[in-house]
Each structure stands twice: as structure tokens, then as C-alpha cells.
Design brief:
Pfam family, one: p450
Number of strands: 11
Strand order of the largest sheet: 1-2-3-9-6-4
GO cellular component, one term: membrane
CATH class of the largest domain: Mainly Alpha
Shape: globular
Structural class: alpha+beta
Keywords: Heme, Iron, Membrane, Metal-binding, Monooxygenase, Oxidoreductase, Transmembrane, Transmembrane helix
GO molecular function, one term: monooxygenase activity
Helix content: 55-70%
CATH superfamily of the largest domain: Cytochrome P450
Strand content: 5-15%
CATH architecture of the largest domain: Orthogonal Bundle
Family: Belongs to the cytochrome P450 family.
Distance between the termini: 66 Å
Number of domains: 2
């Protein structure tokens, strides 16, 4: 009452009453508009109410809320969560929903994460381009990529952790891992000279904080739960009015423009697309962007006119390759620290691989680690940090399995972890969520209806091969040099609340104790 009285004294009773009336009217209009939009839909796609209550109940106990409602309504249900009406998809329809040609994953990701706001490009064009670039520029030259990233991992770990005689506690493994990945990606995306520039490294390391904040813009606000479009308006406002990305884009434009000019001059003098850049052909996404956009590098004006497009694509690639990869690897490190009983098997495999590959973890060596692959698949299968991430937008009215009508424009959210815990995928297990590290035979980058960590079908994550190799490199280096444990093993891995946005790293601290020199594996 004291707070209400203070608010009344400050705003005035009439103004406070008017604000309350406006909020009530907006809430009533929201209810009415949803009911009107859905009045002609068949009853077999039920809608859970109330709008606000659904989100609050979900946040209180997300997995229990989903299980209860799927049991009640069946494998397809409608719910208003985090200010957006969504069609939630359960097993066994998740694979069909993820692969159906009428469901667009790029638009689904944009509906939740506002990629067009973040990078300023039309989402279809941008996402297709981004996937193509990653596949062409990185996956097809994985050996070069592994060769370039390995020194960063060794250097950063020795710099941040060192070979001290006693244990070292890493309170936030995510930040340590992100620093390594950011420096390696900076080198690989813009070449060696720019890749070692402190300002460019700053962009690659910290721009993900801003992008992550925008992707969840207003998600926890009561206003966002009631007022349609509030989150998109807020994200637009922060980008266009507060210009929170401007410090990073200014650096990119200032640094990339001379780089493009230099490339133009070299192309003009050499007249070839096979120019050896900086002495060796690097995995250089910047150059690939210029090539794939058919930019005439003999024409300076044409090349520089596209710098904004290069800048925006690079922002997306930084977020996808640095933030998401760092989250995946943090989960792996925490899982390694939790399951100390698995260390002996993993170390035995690591020793054999190093012995058969000249002591070097090459791309070929990383592909020959079935134990680590199985451990990684089981870690990703059992993690709960993000139950969304595979959203789709329905392109035209579609009957799923012949009876569930999904209208054009609907947002689908396949709840992927429900597939991971489907007993039908794991016959013979009494508890499908029991951690069984050696239960998989496939590479951890291979997707399937029972393993959806990286998506499924033509929309599967194109960067999953990179993420898996990076995780294997970091885990191998840590296990080879340190005994890795959780700081508070009795608490296990601290799981953040599941969200409908993107992956979230765990917050568990780890303790690294250097191995005796005679036991430590030398990793080049």
C-alpha cells in the first residue's frame, strides 16, 4: 500500500487510474484479437488460457507444464508464451514439423530473435546467404580451419590458466571459452592481419552480448507478455534510436574498408581469383562474401558500396559462430567436469589418437574419436538449456499428419528435448534421461529424429561440424593437461531456465588442477 500511495502521490490519482484503464483496455483488446483470429480454427488444435498465466506457469516449471499440457491436448497445441502465440509440437510429430517443405525455419528464427532487426537485412536473403557462406568457406576446408584454431586454444588456455602447481578455479568457463573462439574466428573470418587487431578482437568477443540482449528484448517484461509486437518495437528502438550496435559497426566499417581497398588494388594488379593472400590461402569468409555477392573487385566504387552488406553479414556470422559455439562447448566442459568417472576412457582414447597422428589433433584425428563423440551426443541430448531454437513459420495452410490444421503465418515451435526423452527412441532404457556416455555410435555432428541438437534435414545447422571440432579440441586440451572437476559437484551443472530464444550457457564454475608433467599429454 505504501508503494501504491507513493506512486499515486508522484503521478496523481487520475493519471494512475488512466494508466490502469489503458493497460486493461490493451489486455482486453489482446484477448479479443486472438479469439477473433482463431475462432474458425478446428477444435483439435486447442488453445491454452490465460495469456499471461501460460507464461507464468511455464516459467515456474517448464518441463512439467509442457508434459501436463501435451498429455491433455495431444501432440499439437496452441499457447501464448512470452508475448507470442505459438503452436507447440510434441513427439512423434517433431521430425515432420522440422522437415516439412511448407515450414520456413529462417522466418521462424526471425520471428523469435528478430534477425532482420539485428543485422538490417531481409531475413530470407540473409539466412540463406549466411548458411551458404559457412558451408563453402569453412566446412569444405576443415583441415585448414583446425590448423588455424589449434594455436589459439593452446595459447589462451596457457595464458588464462597456465601451468601453476595448484588448482585454478574458473568461475565463468563461458567467458574463457568465448575469448578463445572469438580470437580464432576473428582470424579465420577476416585474415591474419586484421584477425590480430585488438579492436577487431573486441568486436568479435563482445558484440554477442548486445545481440543476445536484443534477441531476448523485453521477453520477461509483463508488457511484452500482453502487448503484441512490444518485443519487436523494443528491439527496433534499441537498434535505431539507442544505436547500441553502432560502436561495433563503426569499428568494422573503419577496419574493413581499407582491407577491401587493398584487395581491390591486388586484384587489379594480378587479375586472378587465386591470389595467394598473406602468403597462404586462409579460410577467409570476408573474401567469400565478396566473391559470392558477385562484387567486381576491379571496381573500387562497386566494392565499397557493398561494405554495409559485408558488415551486416559479418555481424550475424560472429553471433552464430562465437556465441552459439561457445555455449555448446561450455555445456561440454561442464559435463566433462561433472562426469569424472568418464575421464579414464576419454584419456585412453586421446592417447591412442595422438599416438597414431604424430601427436597432433588434426581434422582426421578429431574424426577418429568415437568415445568423445558419444559423450558429446549424450551431453547435448540430455541438456535442457533451450527447448526452442527450431521455430518455423507456416507458409500456407497445412494439415500435419492429415488432421492438425496449421494456418498460414502460424509460428511453430517443435519442443526438441521432448524427442530426446522419447522412450521409443531409446529401447531397453528404464530411464531415458539417465546419462549413458558410451551409448552412441554416430558422430556428434550427425542429426537424427532422436538427436536434434543441431536441427534436422535441410535446415540443420551448417556450422555444426565447426562447433564439434572446436569442442573436441578444447576438451582434449583440457583433459590432456588438467584434471577437470566442478567447483561444487554436489550441485551438479547449474541449468538456466529454458527459453524460447537461443541457447544459454550453464553457470557452474570448474576447477582445473594441472597434471604431473609425466602424465600430461603434449598437444601441439
Amino acid at each position: 500500500m505504501n508503494s501504491l500511495q507513493a506512486l499515486s502521490d508522484r503521478w496523481g490519482t487520475n493519471n494512475l487510474a488512466a494508466a490502469g484503464a489503458l493497460a486493461t483496455a490493451l489486455y482486453a483488446w489482446r484477448l479479443y484479437s486472438i479469439r477473433q483470429a482463431n475462432k474458425d480454427l478446428p477444435p483439435h488444435v486447442p488453445y491454452t488460457n490465460p495469456i499471461l498465466g501460460s507464461t507464468l506457469d511455464y516459467m515456474h516449471a517448464p518441463h512439467e507444464w509442457l508434459a501436463k499440457n501435451f498429455d491433455k491436448y495431444g501432440p499439437v497445441m496452441r499457447a501464448s508464451l512470452f508475448g507470442r502465440e505459438q503452436y507447440l509440437i510434441d513427439t512423434p510429430l517433431i521430425p515432420d514439423a522440422m522437415k516439412h517443405k511448407n515450414f520456413n525455419s529462417e522466418q521462424g528464427a526471425n520471428a523469435i530473435q528478430f534477425l532482420d532487426v539485428l543485422v538490417g537485412l531481409a531475413v530470407d536473403y540473409h539466412m540463406e546467404d549466411g548458411q551458404h557462406l559457412v558451408l563453402k568457406a569453412l566446412n569444405n576446408r576443415m583441415e585448414i580451419f583446425v590448423e588455424r584454431i589449434r594455436p589459439y586454444i593452446s595459447l589462451m588456455l596457457d595464458e588464462k590458466v597456465g601451468r601453476k602447481s595448484g588448482p585454478v578455479t574458473v568461475e565463468d568457463p563461458f567467458k574463457l571459452i568465448r575469448s578463445m573462439i572469438a580470437q580464432a574466428m576473428c582470424d579465420n573470418f577476416v585474415g591474419k592481419s586484421l584477425g590480430r587487431d585488438p579492436e577487431m578482437i573486441h568486436v568479435f568477443t563482445h558484440v554477442t552480448d548486445v545481440v543476445a540482449a536484443l534477441a531476448t528484448a523485453g521477453a520477461s517484461s509483463m508488457v511484452a507478455l500482453i502487448v503484441p509486437g512490444f518485443r519487436r518495437w523494443y528491439a527496433n528502438y534499441m537498434v535505431n534510436n539507442r544505436k547500441i550496435l553502432k560502436p561495433y559497426t563503426d569499428i568494422l566499417i573503419r577496419k574493413l574498408t581499407p582491407e577491401i581497398e587493398a584487395r581491390v588494388a591486388l586484384r587489379q594488379s594480378c587479375g586472378t581469383n587465386e591470389l595467394e593472400w598473406e602468403g597462404s590461402k586462409p579460410v577467409d569468409v570476408l573474401q567469400t562474401i565478396l566473391d559470392d555477392r558477385n562484387i567486381d573487385l576491379t571496381n573500387r566504387e562497386a566494392a565499397l558500396a557493398r561494405i554495409g552488406e559485408v558488415n551486416n553479414l559479418l555481424l550475424f556470422l560472429i553471433f552464430a559462430s562465437v556465441h552459439l559455439t561457445s555455449v555448446h562447448i561450455t555445456w561440454m566442459i561442464n559435463s566433462i567436469a561433472l562426469h569424472t568417472e568418464c575421464h579414464e576412457e576419454l584419456l585412453k582414447e586421446l592417447k591412442l589418437v595422438l599416438a597414431s597422428h604424430g601427436g597432433v589433433l588434426s581434422d582426421e584425428a578429431l574424426r577418429n574419436m568415437p568415445k568423445l563423440d558419444s559423450f558429446m551426443r549424450e551431453t547435448f541430448r540430455t541438456r535442457f538449456d533451450c527447448i526452442g531454437g527450431s521455430q518455423r513459420i507456416v507458409q500456407e495452410d497445412t494439415l500435419l499428419e492429415g488432421k492438425y490444421l496449421l494456418p498460414k503465418g502460424a509460428l511453430l515451435n517443435p519442443i526438441t528435448f521432448r524427442a530426446h526423452q522419447n522412450p521409443g527412441h531409446w529401447p531397453g532404457r528404464e530411464d531415458v534421461m539417465e546419462f549413458q556416455p558410451w551409448s552412441h555410435e554416430e558422430p556428434s555432428s550427425r542429426t537424427s529424429p532422436a538427436y536434434l541438437q543441431f536441427g534436422l534435414g535441410r535446415h540443420a545447422c551448417p556450422g555444426r561440424f565447426l562447433a564439434v571440432n572446436e569442442a573436441k579440441l578444447i576438451v582434449s586440451y583440457l583433459l590432456g593437461r588438467y584434471d577437470v572437476k566442478l567447483k561444487e559437484p554436489e550441485k551438479g551443472v547449474v541449468t538456466p531456465m529454458p527459453a524460447f530464444t537461443f541457447s544459454i550457457a550453464p553457470t557452474s564454475a570448474i576447477v582445473l588442477t594441472p597434471r604431473d608433467e609425466k602424465d600430461a599429454l603434449v598437444l601441439l
